[in-house]
Amino acid sequence: xxxxxxxxxxxxxxxxxxxxxxxxxxxxxxxxxxxxxxxxxxxxxxxxxxxxxxxxxxxxxxxxxxxxxxxxxxxxxxxxxxxxxxxxxxxxxxxxxxxxxxxxxxxxxxxxxxxxxxxxxxxxxxxxxxxxxxxxxxxxxxxxxxxxxxxxxxxxxxxxxxxxxxxxxxxxxxxxxxxxxxxxxxxxxxxxxxxxxxxxxxxxxxxxxxxxxxxxxxxxxxxxxxxxx
Length: 229
What we know:
By secondary structure, the protein is an alpha/beta fold. The chain folds into two domains: 5-125, Rossmann fold (3-Layer(aba) Sandwich), CATH 3.40.50.2300; 135-226, Winged helix-like DNA-binding domain superfamily/Winged helix DNA-binding domain (Arc Repressor Mutant, subunit A, Orthogonal Bundle), CATH 1.10.10. It has eight helices and twelve strands. It has helices spanning 13-25, 36-45, 62-70, 89-97, 110-125, 160-170, 179-186, 195-209; strands at residues 5-9, 29-33, 50-54, 80-84, 102-105, 135-137, 140-143, 148-151, 154-155, 177-178, 216-219, 223-226. It has a five-stranded parallel sheet with strand order 2-1-3-4-5, with helices on both faces. It has a four-stranded antiparallel sheet with strand order 6-7-8-9, covered by helices on one side. Strand 6 and strand 7 form a beta hairpin. The longest helix has 16 residues, at 110-125. The relative contact order is 0.11. The model has no long low-confidence stretch (mean pLDDT 86).
């Protein structure tokens, strides 16, 4: 049974009740709050192991909460799984770029949400890849051992998932990987992740890499590859 502490932030009582019930049944300790302001009060004082965060909150919205948590040394390490009622790519990409780890769109399956929670917690504690040789391609440098990415010598801040996807592709230039192969190699094959979630991470990754984003090529109908050297 799990014993990790999960903070759930949502202004819909029915959603809070549903999520709390399913998490508690799996052994998680759960704290529920209904506003972004309350989340920012609770998280630094009692840092949870993971935050489930609704994007559409009244007052301080989910993106503001995510930005604040990731900017605070006390909470920046905490994985965040976003809940999005709209399912709009722009909101999801914005959250991922701020450092959120994953997302689930409403209405959602409790089983899927639990899988995302387990995956995010597992990624937080998993050891780095043993393959630590740096990869240098044109203006891009990837240092697996340090989990560091440089573009023209300047560091680029990536989430753990973004880094794993980039490294997964870059270590096999020219090889085409399907979305599910990327999921298997970066998040584990027992995690419920949709094709769309990989696409959204790729969009965020390309934006952060700037001109080097073109190194990641889309192979229509198949998946992605890193441009052959």
